[in-house]
Design a protein that fits this description.
Oligomer: single chain
Helix content: 40-55%
Strand content: 15-25%
Number of domains: 2
CATH class of the largest domain: Alpha Beta
Radius of gyration: 21 Å
Number of strands: 7
Largest sheet: 7 strands, mixed
Distance between the termini: 54 Å
Structural class: alpha+beta
CATH topology of the largest domain: Nuclear Transport Factor 2, Chain: A
Length: about 325
Amino acid sequence: MMETQVRDDFLHLADPFRRELTAYCYRMLGSIHDAEDLVQETYLRAWRSYDKFEGRSSLRSWLYRIATNVCLTALESRGKRPMPTGLGTGSADPAIPVVEQVEVPWLEPAPDVMVGASNADPAAIVTSRESVRLALIAALQHLPPRQRAVLILRDVLKWRAAEVAELLDVSAAAVNSMLQRARAQLDEISPSEDEVAEPTTQDQRDLLNRYVEAFERYDVNAIVTLFTKDAVWEMPPFPTWYQGADSIGRLISAQCPAQRPGDLRLLPTEANGQPAFAMYLRRDGTYHSFAINVLTLSASGIEHGTMFFDLSLFPLFGLPDTLPQDA
């Protein structure tokens, strides 16, 4: 009876940390599905051994230790999750038909509500959004797992070197060395956050409204005008990617299955602290889930668009599989 009470107490005390642990595991793995599974594994391990928890560290630190070990073990048997732009190939010809590579474990977007990027505190919003942006998550995938953990714990979660050293059972000097190497590698591949515009101004909101209207009208010329000159477009699980507003327009004209105004419907959502839309394609009088479209905005327009065609993402975003004809 006492053991049951202790474990019930654990669930009550540990539950407030679930979302931040989900964000941590997502940054480590690059998959929101994997992050959910590993957080469940973390809580199961912690629940089973909570009666042995001696309180020498905080419950939060103890949970992070378990989550880190779970993530590092998982990463031993899993490769990095790339984006098409991270594969080292050049921009593709929009006229060439695209071919899926479903065997690649592609990077996944994460709903803001699951990773803490939606918060009432404006300061917390900015911090959490920057730390889950797609570009950063993709860049983290290039780091060795332990360097990845050190950089997240030190630079994102602001842990002290001594705390990270205790968690990883290494010296503080080793932590600082791993952090230095991780920062250097990240600086080579990660864009400056200063270039990213938050969709909070009226101009940015108007831009997003025009984006929705242009796609729902299937007005390719209008779509093209919303992108910056050197904008990038990618579409996992297709390994090809495209650069330049004109190339994006040619791709949409040549290969988008929508053919006429009204074939697409867009519902606003949020992913990785960025504006996003759930796209639905009309077939047989019903709009069916088609893709999650995540955008990166700059002061001069849309500079990056990613279409995620993994339909298993829709339930995680709280999105329906279909919309009625009059949606």
